[in-house]
Write a structure and sequence with these properties.
The protein is mainly α. It has eight helices and no strands.
Length: 219
């Protein structure tokens, strides 16, 4: 598979990841013990697993498409952001597979893990999950801001979408002050940004191929 096809696959992955991320904000069940054992809970977190993988593929494709333009800061940004997706994947796996098995035998632990992911705080000890949760929040916020900045500076993909990614990442700070009914809405700008950047990646790849073909014909 040549570079152009890889970039198109990455663009498509980013579009799907963005759309799934937006959809998840509307269908995610409440963080309660009763919901953990439902099929809806499992489906939502399996979708989140797929979303994390697709988003990582999309972000890597965006970076590689403009690796020269983004420089060292771009490398730092993609590493940070990529670590965030790995952590999201890990937490989603725990929520999809582990918590369902423990809901009946250890409901207190399940409640603590859900409280940790929802509010950042747990009543009892949850092991390394506390540090992982902090890492997830930091990489999502700082990685998202840095990646959006380097995309905007590079100017290869749509700058308005890069700016939206920065705004969306920064808006996660508002979760602490927003009512619970609205806290998931701050993720929507990020999902829209991913999808838009994916379309831009696909489009820029097609434009580049057309320019190369034209130069070849002229030559």
């Amino acid at each position: 598979m040549n570079h152009s096809k890889l970039f198109r696959v990455a663009g498509l992955a980013a579009v799907v990841a963005g759309l799934v991320f937006v959809l998840l904000q509307f269908i995610h069940p409440d963080e309660t013990i009763q919901n953990v054992t439902t099929m809806t809970w499992k489906v939502v977190h399996v979708m989140t697993l797929a979303m994390a993988i697709l988003a990582l593929v999309g972000v890597l494709g965006m970076y590689l498409r403009q690796v020269e333009e983004t420089g060292v800061l771009g490398f730092v940004a993609v590493v940070l952001y990529g670590c965030g997706f790995f952590l999201i994947f890990g937490f989603s796996f725990i929520e999809a597979a582990v918590l369902q098995q423990l809901a009946d035998t250890n409901p207190r632990y399940v409640a603590d893990v859900m409280a940790l992911t929802a509010t950042g705080e747990a009543t009892d000890e949850v092991g390394g999950l506390g540090a992982a949760n902090v890492g997830s929040a930091v990489t999502y916020l700082i990685g998202g801001v840095l990646f959006g900045v380097v995309l905007w500076r590079a100017g290869v993909l749509w700058r308005w979408a890069a700016a939206l990614l920065v705004i969306g990442a920064l808006s996660t700070i508002l979760i602490r002050v927003l009512p619970e009914s609205l806290d998931r809405m701050v993720a929507i700008p990020v999902g829209v940004a991913w999808a838009s950047l994916g379309i831009s990646l696909w489009q820029s790849t097609s434009t580049r191929m057309g320019s190369v073909a034209t130069k070849t014909e002229v030559g």
